[in-house]
Amino acid sequence: MSFVFDAGAAVPYLLGAFAAAALISFVLTPVVRGQAIRLRMIDRPNHRRVNVRPVPRGGGLAFVVAFLVVAVALVLLNLQFSFIRLPTRLEPGEIVALLAGGALAAVIGALDDRYDLRARWQLLGQLALALGAVALGIGIEVVNNPFGQGSIPFNALFVFGFTVLWIVGMINSVNFIDGLDGLSSGIALIAALTLGVISLTTQVAGGQPFVALLCFVLAGALLGFLRWNFHPATIFAGTSGTMFIGYTLAVLSILGAAKVAVALLVLGVPIIDTFWIIVRRVLAGRSPFTPDRGHLHHRLLDLGLTHRQTVVLIYVICAGLAILSVILSGANQIYAFVGVLVGTGFVLLLIAWGGFSDEALEADSYETPDDAEVGPASAPASARGAPGGGAGDRLEGGGTFAPEAARPGPDR
After folding, report:
1. pLDDT of res. 400
2. Which of 79, 161, 321, 326 is most open to solvent, judged by the fewest CB atoms within 10 Å of its CB?
3. What pLDDT is stored for residue 383 in this prediction?
4. Nearest of 254, 267, 263, 266 to residue 159 by alpha carbon
5. What pLDDT is recorded for position 296?
6. What is the C-alpha to C-alpha distance for residues 59 and 379, in angstroms, rounded to an integer?
7. Nearest Cα to 171, choosing from 133, 112, 126?
8. Are 102 and 174 a contacting pair, CB within 8 Å?
9. Kind and range of the H or E element at 112?
10. How far apart are CA 314 and CA 90, in angstroms?
11. How far apart are CA 111 and CA 103, in angstroms?
């Protein structure tokens, strides 16, 4: 691995942008939390979720605002003063796709946080986001040849299908892994930093300091939020957060020059977890969006790990994959991803053989623990109940929310 000639000059701007986004997100999160309580955007404990206390959701709006404010300011300032080199392949439409598309993803997610949209409407929203991004110029047109020199170009039809699948798949991978306090935001933080570092190296089209700058802004915004989201969480990212994270990481991995192999490896845990979950559900004759407890983090909890131990262990795995993505190149990245894919499937199979029946993986089988140490945890959008709660319900971190008429949970 070697860095580009102007990587050192970009570092002060990267660190400044990172700190600014982190500060804004840190300050905004409690404000968003208060509004979430007022609007009754609450995840209540029940037999389908891990959290044992009512916790507000929709906190992703805090880091969305932090990212957009800092990123837009940097784009405008860079147009005026040119302090960071732009990639030769970067077009204005792609920047619009990143910023406007990210904002729209957060809006669609916020609607789900408030009104519990059906999965089909969320999927339509994701497809609209992906199609809009492609229309604005986002596309995986070439990838580095993993088995030789040069690159592999794709025809227009393949570019269209692959890019839409990449964006929608990334959104759902982040959404599916959002099952414990700080899990999705922490994994995304590691991924954003890794994409930022990779963008400063010669591995990616001679270096892309400006893309690295945007990655560091996202990482800073997530770090500021993680202070409130790590176990025990006082607010969850919600669908507004997971939709934005998935979409933004997908687009950042394409900007300038595709870094798909890097993103595949560093985000291997959520991507592979989503893959095996969908395979198991389809083979069982169920919808891929049917909630259950077959995720990797659920299995680790069932093995006896505590909430924090599970999250930290997955962080360590993701950090290890991030290091591999920086060190390895070409075919080695692909080999590493395939190895993780097969290895994860083998581990999940061993755990299943260890005594967890299919019924034990159903959403309704989850017993709310009495041990307060387990604490609250975010639930995937596919397993959320209705917002609101009963009179006197206590919110994690203090406060109460008013009673609301009972409504059935969403049909996921």
Report:
1. 45
2. 79
3. 40
4. 254
5. 80
6. 13
7. 126
8. no
9. helix 92-115
10. 33
11. 13
Q: Is 226 exposed, middle or buried (0-12, 13-18, 19+ CB in 10 A)?
A: buried
Q: Which amino acid is at 407?
A: R
How far is residue 341's CA from residue 322's CA, in Å, rounded to a whole number? 15
Q: Which helix (H) or strand (E) holds 43?
A: strand 42-43
Integer CA distances (angstroms), 13 to 158, 211, 261, in order: 37, 12, 27
pLDDT at 281: 81
Q: What is the DSSP letter of 85?
A: P
Looking at residue 324, its pLDDT comes to 86
Question: Residues for the chain: how many in total?
Answer: 412
Residue type, 309: Q
Distance between CA atoms of residues 183 and 270, nearest Å: 10
- Pure H helices in 284-361: 296-302, 307-327, 331-353
Residue 144 has phi, psi (to 5 degrees) of: -65, 140
User: Is residue 297 exposed (0-12), middle (13-18) or buried (19+ Cβ within 10 Å)?
Assistant: buried
Q: Report the distance separating Cα 281 and Cα 233, nearest Å.
A: 29
In this structure, what DSSP letter does residue 55 have? E
Cβ atoms within 10 Å of 93's Cβ, excluding its own: 13
411 SS3 class: coil
Whole-angstrom distance, CA of residue 271 vs CA of residue 254: 17
**Mutual angle of helices 331-353 and 307-327, in 10-degree steps:** 160
- Cα(44)–Cα(52) distance, integer angstroms: 8
What are the tokens at 28? 């905004």
Provide the pLDDT for residue 181: 92
- List the one residue out of 60, 20, 21 whose CA is nearest residue 174: 60
DSSP annotation string for 127-166: HHHHHHHHHTT----EEE-TTSSSEEE--HHHHHHHHHHH
203 close to 334: Cβ distance less than 8 angstroms = no
Tell me how far apart the alpha carbons of residues 72 and 89 are, in angstroms, rounded to a whole number. Answer: 19
Q: In this predicted structure, what is the pLDDT of residue 229?
A: 96
CB within 8 A of 96, min separation 6: which ones?
136
Low-confidence ranges of the chain (pLDDT < 50): 355-394, 396-412
At residue 400, φ and ψ (nearest 5 deg) are -135, 165
- 395 is written with which tokens? 């919110």
* 194 neighbors 153 (Cβ within 8 angstroms): no
Q: What are phi and psi of 82, to 5 degrees?
A: 50, 55
